[in-house]
Design a protein that fits this description.
This protein has six helices and six strands. By secondary structure, the chain is an alpha+beta fold. It has one domain: Chorismate lyase (3-Layer(aba) Sandwich). The chain has a six-stranded antiparallel beta sheet. The termini are far apart. The N terminus is likely disordered.
Length: about 200
């Protein structure tokens, strides 16, 4: 009898389990709504950096809502023939690669791959990309670039009854940046569950 009583006491009542399930469902629905809002803003804007800076400020992710591009060293990805075609460069024209984690405060909001044509940027821009943690969008802002979206892929699938963690990949965006109709960069961005945080949580 003691064993049965103890086992019963360890089992949450049906009402508690129902509340827990409802809370998890609400968390998942909230995450889905936030993801839809952010992805729509990114697709509509010419600069992902500007969108993330506004997002960081809006959700209170840091006292100073600046985006910092933390370089990921030791990785090099050559552009594919298709990427060279989209960038309108020949097989021998230089294309540089830069991989960064875009952070706001202690939050890693996305990881980005950038393939860019250094000959279409100013010397000062190339130096900044090589030697600083400035985001690509901030560096090339004087070019007033336009952004042509190539794809949006959802990586997180609702249905598990819980919101994704801060490191979970949520969605990926690929785009080409141009200035004056001339392409100069292709980006591949993967956004993480850290974008769901609010008020420093």
């Amino acid at each position: 009898m003691v064993g049965l009583a103890t086992a019963g006491a360890m089992t949450p009542p049906a009402e508690t389990r129902a509340h827990e399930t409802q809370d998890k469902t609400q968390d998942e629905a909230g995450a889905r709504a936030v993801i839809e809002t952010l992805s729509a803003r990114l697709l509509a804007a010419p600069s992902a950096t500007a969108v993330l800076e506004a997002w960081c400020a809006e959700r209170g992710l840091a006292t100073d809502p600046r985006i910092v591009a933390v370089r990921v060293p030791g990785i090099d990805k050559l552009p594919s023939p298709t990427q060279r075609e989209r960038l309108a460069v020949g097989p021998d024209e230089a294309v540089r690669y830069r991989r960064v984690r875009l952070t706001c405060g202690g939050h890693v909001l996305s990881e980005a791959d950038n393939w860019y044509v250094p000959g279409r940027l100013t010397p000062e821009m190339n130096t900044a990309l090589d030697a600083t943690q400035a985001p690509f969008g901030t560096v090339v802002r004087p070019l007033k670039p336009s952004r042509r979206n190539l794809s949006l892929r959802m990586l997180w699938r609702p249905g598990e009854g819980t919101a994704p963690g801060p490191d979970a990949p949520l969605f990926a965006v690929e785009a080409v940046l141009s200035t004056g109709g001339v392409p100069f960069c292709e980006v591949a961005e993967t956004y993480t569950g850290a974008v769901l945080a609010q008020g420093g949580r």
